[in-house]
Amino acid sequence: MPATNVNWPNPQIQDSGYPGQFGVPGAVAEYGLRQNTQGQVFYVDPNHVDNNNLRDGTDPTAPLTSVATALTKCQPYRGDVIAVMANNSWQYGNSADGNTVAISEEVTITVPGVKIVGVCQSGQGVYWYPASNAGTCITVAAIDVTIEGFFFSEGPTFAGCNAIAAEWDGTTLFGENLTVRNCIFDDTVDTAIELDYSWYCNIHDNLFWKCDVYGISSPVAGSGVAFSLIENNVFHDCAIAISLLGGCDDNVISNNKIYNSSAQGAAAAANEGINTTGGDRNMVANNYFSCLLPVPANGDYDDLNTAAATDAWVGNHCMNGLAITNPT
User: Fold this and answer.
1) Model pTM?
2) What is the pLDDT of residues 111-158, one digit of tens each?
3) What is the residue-wise DSSP string for 142-204?
4) Residue 276 region, left (φ>0) first, then alpha (ψ -120 to 50), else beta?
5) Which residues of the chain have pLDDT under 50?
6) Disulfide engineering: 241 pairs with which of 160, 201, 235, 263, CB 3.0-4.6 Å?
7) Do residues 51 and 65 touch, judged by C-beta distance below 8 A?
8) Angle CA(45)–CA(206)–CA(46) in degrees, nearest 5?
9) Cα 316 to Cα 294: distance, rounded to the nearest angstrom
């Protein structure tokens, strides 16, 4: 799944003329991950016996130690990719197998057009923990960034974790055009993806397992998420799956699966599914909810979700049929 047989959105340049830039196991291209004739692949592997942040990072046999260092080597729109190698920090992993050092960083991306890819042969992804209690692993303050193939968790040391935050810094840096795909957010994550004044985001094919606060959220009313596509994700018992409040307009939320134990058991689940209150012209279509069709009771379609007045909620699936109205 993550980073295995990845279909890159643009044609790759399969060029063997760059020493040290040969392919990563699991990558779709024989000669590496470049999507530009000038692009570089920077390898990060804190478990490698010869890792060193003083290297240039382009040789997989001498990788960098940290993602933060790799980011300092990237250039805008050069087609650079940061390839992060797998680690054996899964709680049930055998420490005797080695590679036990996870990525434990809180980085800010300010270089547009960068891709950060977890290269892992399993379906779990490359483990990434914060570097402090309730820390944010990745803050995106640049456009056209792609993040894929990671497993985000608080890890064995820290309490709480925010995985990805895309934000406008109030001046010139925007976290727009963000793509997040094939990632997993576990039950120790507080907020998995926070979008603040971020437009044209594409969030698809991710797993949100019991996130403590939000799966996907706009942090405050009026945070202006617009023209974004959220599709084909699984939200399993997140405290709140998707919350796009006032000022979040023209988004499409489709083909997601949202399981909520309270709704499934006909208990109160107020706005724990999808809430687009106060926005405008959002399309919410063909999603699946573990609730009943609208009835005057807890846990039903209207209790689990709330729509903006001008939204179009079309053909959403409940446990006992197809909902054809906006939830109230």
Assistant:
1) 0.88
2) 999 999 999 866 788 999 999 999 999 999 999 999 999 999 999 999
3) SSS-EEESEEE--TTT-S-EEEEEEE--SSS----S-EEES-EE-TT-SEEEEEES-BS-EEE
4) alpha
5) 1-31
6) 235
7) yes
8) 10
9) 12
Residues 6+ apart with CB under 8 A from 128: 102, 103, 104, 105, 118, 137, 138, 150, 151, 152, 153, 163
Question: Rg (Cα) of the chain, in Å, rounded?
Answer: 20
Write the pLDDT tens digit of every residue in 161-193.
999 999 887 778 889 999 999 999 999 999 999
DSSP of 27-53:
-SSTT-S-SSTT--EEEE-TTSTT--T
Domains of the chain: total: 1
In a domain, 179, yes or no: no
Place of tokens 């009026």: 222
Q: Which domain holds residue 92?
A: 1-156
Task: Classify residue 41: in a domain, yes or no.
Answer: yes
Determine the pLDDT at residue 36: 66
